[in-house]
Amino acid sequence: MLKADSSLGVIFFPAYDWAISPTHPEREERLLYTQDQFREEGLFDIEGISEHRPLFATDQDIMRAHFCFPSVEAICTESHRISAGGAIQAARLVLEQATRRAFALVRPPGHHAMKVVHGNRGFCNINIEAVMVEWIREHYGRKRIAIVDTDCHHGDGTQDVYWHDPDVLFISLHQDGRTLYPGTGFPHENGGPRALGRTINIPLPPRTGDEGYLYVLENVVLPILADFKPDLVINSAGQDNHYSDPITNMLFTARGYARLNERLKPDIAVLEGGYSIKGALPYVNLGICLAMAGCDYSAVREPDYNAAALREEPETLEYIKQSCDPLLEGYFHPAMGDFEKQGEYFVRERKIFYDTDGILEKQREELKDCDQCRGLRLIKSSSSRLLPCLGVELPIDCCPACEREGYEAFNRKGDEFLVAQMLDQKNKQFCYRPQR
Amino acid sequence: MRIGIDIGGTHTDSVLIDGTRLVAAAKAPTNHDNLLESISQVLHLILAGQDPTAVTTLNLSTTLNTNAIVTGRTDPVGMLVVGGPGIAPENYRIGEHFHLISGSLDHLGTETAVLDEEEVEEAITSCRTQGVACFAVASKFSPRNPAHEKRIQEMLTNQADFVSSGHLISGQLNFGRRIHTAYYNSAVWRTFRAFSTALTASLSGFDLHAEVNILKADGGTMPLSRALEAPVQSIFSGPAASVMGILATTPASTDMLMLDIGGTTSDIALFASGQPLLEREGIAIDGHPTLVRAIHVESIGIGGDSLISMREDGLQIGPQRIGPCMASGGPAPTLMDGLNVLGLAAFGEVQWSRNGIEALAVSHGLTGRQLAKQAVDAAVNTISAKIEELIAHVNAKPVYTIQEILEEREINPKKIIVIGGPAAVFKELLQMRLGMEVVVPPLHGVANAIGAALTRSTSHLTLTADTSKSKLSVPRLGIFRSIPRSFNLNAAIEEAKTLLKDDLEQAGITIPADQIQITQADSFNMVEGSYTMGKNIRVVAQVQPAVVARLEASATEIAIAGRP
User: Fold this and answer.
1) Is the ipTM of this complex over 0.85?
2) Considering only residues 14 to 73 of chain A, which have any Cβ-Cβ distance to chain B shorter than 8 Å?
3) Which of A55, A158, B419, B461 has its CA 20 to 30 A from that of B112?
4) CATH architecture classification, B259-440
5) Which structural domain, as residue segments, surrounds residue A8?
6) CB-based burial label for B242 (10 Å; 0-12, 13-18, 19+)
7) pTM of the complete model
């Protein structure tokens, strides 16, 4: 019988009773054929591979990661709490050393959900990796964490959540934003003024296959991880680089995904996108599970696999190779961007569109340029549906001055904000301003 | 009247029951070389002074097939396996005649590589020249499309004494388990057939013309005619008989536990609202997981004969057994001796227990009572820890819908039924440690035979339908046919119930429609692009284990073979 070299806990939660809408890609059927494949392969009969149910994320779990406006309940349904709870379960298994690794094979996904949430963007309401990372730091203290986002779409939500956090290294590999939603994720997006080089974006040309993808992994991702020396590596595991995915244009295969995980050795993987539910997901998920467990995956192959047809053009490969050195520069010697400053604050003003829910958010972010700590962050946000809201974030190393200023803003009476939320990482206080 | 016979490892037990009344009970030693002798012995005892023609049903639980496997006395099997991509089928190699055949199907049952018939011919010839006459066939995803298995079976026509076909075993997906189940089914077929022939002859000798059923590991029965096709289903029916014995002697409608304390091991089973919990997929045979449905029974290495030993890190109890307790003339002190010393039991020669325990205690600076107490505490703690682990495990089982996560109730047993030799002795000890009501039912000495006598038939089937392809399949019944595109979940549920009822009726069993339980009923919209192409429907129907009557309390004595 088969035996896992490194034990793997799989949180398999297909949410068979939840869909965004009946024909939406994010629907009940999405993981059905993956489960058929797992069952037929007897995945959970392999010694060392176990199946677990998700936990349920509480308001506090979510408020550690997000500013939810107007409230957590308005943003999150049970499905989102269970999906985030699946990620938390994965972290729990690994940190309690019940299993060496864990894979949260859950839906709905989360990597397009940003720090501030007004609704659903790119099929995501809350960022399940971020909720998990904050749960880990709450229960196991400050940690160096690397999130490698291997979804075909730029992980703009996760990038946004950790933009200013030097403890979290975020690396996203994705199809070039000039050719795919959400249209971001360029190498110059390199982290906030206090976390330069802690965001690494690796855009790949359309029709990149196994060779190009794994080349970037070996020559950019792994050397950066070797330098960063994270306590935990998390794979934000989208499966839409697959050659059969209906909404992307890449040539990655199930065996490529398995090889990627064999080399990356993530402690935790969390499912993101991937909508070729019959032709890709059963094989990709099997490959990832076997690779994470250290089992032989050499016979995992799609029925229509054709190596010759799935090889990238030589020019594509050459282009990828040329892009590696500048990407390494972006980590090892990041250039100071032209951050706008008003007084002692770095200021960003943005408009964010929530495609699924059709919401337009206007946001002004102020980060204090403090020489005692990472700096107080104030986010003023309003949307096409909601009057201005205020988010106050105190960093984990918050200095007394920033702490005082943050609480003053949060407690100010008679200001213009309809809702105010405090996210105090230092004192672990996560709450809304009492309603008048 | 009904007869129940349980052929166990040491004893063969039998009971004769009239309605809810125990008429006679008997025990004889099991003769593993001649099971019919043991059966005859107990039948003689229970039928003494009774009219054998009034017996309508005889249910038999036998270790025959289990023993054949454990002792390696099985037929060689030509195992023909069609794998394909995924986990390498080589990992499921079993037996001396394991042949991999090229060909493959995907998870939708679509053929993705044709069956290599030349390889099939070669494999059959190779087996035949080595004298193999029993075959088993399993292809990956055969419950979705049995074409490859059926073709191989066709090619085996007139070349095999018996063929087991994977898709007819279960509609459940699990390739490795399908291979092993089909293999064992063919491996024990000849032994079981010989037994069945001899049994039938022997029963006519007793003027018994009852319908004969064989007990399965899921606690239900199957008619002898079905058992001849699926002999593998009869393995490990012993623990299931005990569980059904509980249901037949004790009111059971709540969450509860069963503890069956034996000589070397004890078995623990869990009931949810009075229903015994089944294994998720099936039981393992000789370390090989199979698709044989079974009551989930946890075994632990603690029993009356568990050895008490002193180690560097303290006292150890079980899992070793080196003989019976000293009170019965055994070589070393056991749990039973400890119970004797504490005055909780008075089994055999109590003084021999005292001598043995004290000798061990003295060499470790303890009194006999102190050591006995440590031993009994350790045994109770081990049993309790296992019970708590089992409950936690069952409550943590995976679920796949939001509704289940939000609404599912936790299993929280408040009662434990204890049976087996030293059951009564443990009553107070367990009550204190577990804080549960502990019940020791009367008649627990033959509970297994009572369970066998009073249990009814069980069955199950998996139905899948794909309306985009207008296809319906019920693999276990060999049904693969077309349906209208308008077929829906309600129609599927009705169809599953009707098919299961009809199948049981064909085997001579009538089950009221409301006793057929639907354990899964899902319908998924199948979408291509942004169009709904049809529905993917999955329904599982079952008749769960249950007893036909609950026994009234009685003072019937157990007759022991060879004693007046």
Assistant:
1) yes
2) 14-18, 22-23, 27-29, 32-33, 35-37, 39-43, 45, 51-54, 56
3) B461
4) 2-Layer Sandwich (3.30)
5) 3-332
6) buried
7) 0.94
